[in-house]
Structure formats: C-alpha cells, structure tokens
C-alpha cells in the first residue's frame, strides 16, 4: 500500500483541510474521492460553503469517499461551538475490493485529517442529515445543554 504522502499527494487537499478548519475561510466541507476506479490515490473532488446536506449531493451510490465537515452547534450566538466531523463514505453499491482497501487506507487519511470530534462511517445519507450529525456531536461532547428531550 502507498504511504499517506502518496495517497494524499494532491496539495489542494492540505489547503482545503486548512480552509475548512479556519473560521476566516468560507469553506465548510470538502470531499476526497479516488482518482479512478483502480487508483489508490485521492483527489480533492469538491468543496462547499453550505450545510452537510449539500455535501451529501456529491456522494454517489457506487462511490467511496472521505469528507471533512465543519459544524456549528449551539442554541444562540453565545453558546455556539464549532466541531468537525470526519466521514468515511461507502456508497451501497461500492465494489467489495474498494471497501476492503478503505479499511486500511482510512488510517492513512486520518494521518492528514487529524482533528475531528466524530467519525461517521456510513453508506446511508440519512446518517449524514444535519440533525443526525448534530446529535452524534452532542453525545460526543458529553454534557448536553439543549433543553430538547429533557424533563426539567
């Protein structure tokens, strides 16, 4: 297998990662896809400035991809927190060999995309809906100060 440097050799990937992490940059997500059906190299496939639902539009049923997303949580401007989500996408029709390779390669991707609160490995876009992702983030954060679903 190729080392992480070869797998993620596209310099645009590192820049997009930094842009998604930066509060000063407008990017809120990025998607990495394999350069071809037989390649192990990843390329920056798409970036965006919108919600995670916009990102989901770029994930195909027969594709394998990695995504990195900035999510804001909070009830108001004073309690707002920024969290990051790492997504390992394996569309329901992704080839078995690609899925097998991803189990190893995802570790290499994590050497580059290191800072995230939650990892979501899925083949179902319902798991990437805004509220589902925010719920996973709240659980990962521990204390939940939202009054939704509590009996005070």
Tell me the CATH topology.
Answer: Severin
In which range does the helix fraction lie? 25-40%
Largest sheet features: 5 strands, mixed
Q: What sequence of helices (H) and strands (E) makes up the elements?
A: HHEEHEEHEH
**Counting H and I runs of at least 4 residues, what is the number of helices?**
5
CATH architecture identity: 3-Layer(aba) Sandwich
Organism: Massarina eburnea CBS 473.64
GO molecular function, one term: actin filament binding
Pfam families: Cofilin_ADF
Domain ADF-H: 5-138
Concise account of the structure shown:
With 152 residues, this protein is an alpha+beta fold.
General description of the model:
This protein is of the alpha+beta class and 152 residues long. It has a single domain, classed as Severin (3-Layer(aba) Sandwich), CATH 3.40.20. The chain is globular. A hairpin with a 7-residue loop joins β1 and β2 (42-48). The chain has helices spanning 4-7, 11-21, 52-56, 96-112, 130-141; strands at residues 29-34, 42-48, 64-73, 81-90, 118-122. Helix content is 32%, strand content 25%. It is built from 5 helices and 5 strands, in the order ααββαββαβα. Strands 2-1-3-4-5 form a 5-stranded mixed sheet, sandwiched between helices. The mean pLDDT is 87.
